[in-house]
Amino acid sequence: MVQLREKGLPSRDLLALAREVRKVTRNGALFFVNDRVDVAMASGADGVQLGEQSMSISAARQVAGNEFLIGRSVHDLYGAEDAEREGADFLIVGTIFQSRSHPGLAAAGTELISEIRERVSIPMIGIGGISAANAAQVVEAGANGVAVIGAILDAVDHRAAAEKLSDALIQVESARSARDDGTES
Q1: Under the phi-then-psi rule, with left for phi > 0, alpha for psi from -120 to 50, and beta for the rest, what region is 78?
Q2: Are strands 69-74 and 31-34 parallel, antiparallel or unpaired?
Q3: CB–CB of 43/29 below 8 Å?
Q4: What is the spatial distance between Cα 155 and Cα 124, in angstroms, rounded to a whole number?
Q5: Which of 52, 75, 109, 143 is most deeply packed, by most CB within 10 A?
Q6: Distance of CA 117 to CAs 3, 128, 182, Å?
């Protein structure tokens, strides 16, 4: 999944960029535009990622319809429950660990993922300070996946950083499958 998050870009430029990203992701990844339902729809994106202060999920649904995927960013259990009740398809939950992209937010820790997982059934992705070193903790706490910015963009070798993160997630999934099959002691 690729999310285009360019808050300061003028609409015309954002749409042009979104169309380019859609071309690149068309056969390999779901593509989401941050906050802008109009740009997401015009670019052929798979969905939109709404912040907690964005338009309501129901309003986005009215504009985009039921085939469009709608995610909601949440920072606590109440926001997660509201998003699920309102019809979000998935949640982005954070900030899990200290993050440079959100320096003013306190890290909630993986406890937030566990708390939400107990009460919310839709898929969720952990975000905030996640790296190959701590991604497994987020998934083990109940997230369906992780979102990263710095772990890849701050790396000297972006491909190697993405592969390292992918390997960490594959390892946790293998361990989970082994536990579920009863093959792990």
Answers
A1: alpha
A2: unpaired
A3: no
A4: 25
A5: 143
A6: 23, 17, 23
| 35 in Cβ contact with 12 (< 8 Å) | no
pLDDT for the residue numbered 101:
73
pTM, whole model, 2 decimals? 0.90
75-121 pLDDT, tens digit each: 999 999 999 999 999 999 999 998 877 677 789 999 999 999 999 99
Given the structure tokens 């910015």, which residue do they identify? Answer: 149
**Cα–Cα dist 129/150, whole Å:** 8
Give the separation between CA 151 and CA 185, rounded to whole angstroms. Answer: 32
Asked whether 93 and 126 are in contact (CB, 8 A), the reply is yes
pLDDT tens for each residue of 138-157: 999 999 999 999 999 999 99
The two three-digit tokens of residue 80, written as one number = 């997660």
- Both tokens of 71, joined, read 């995610």
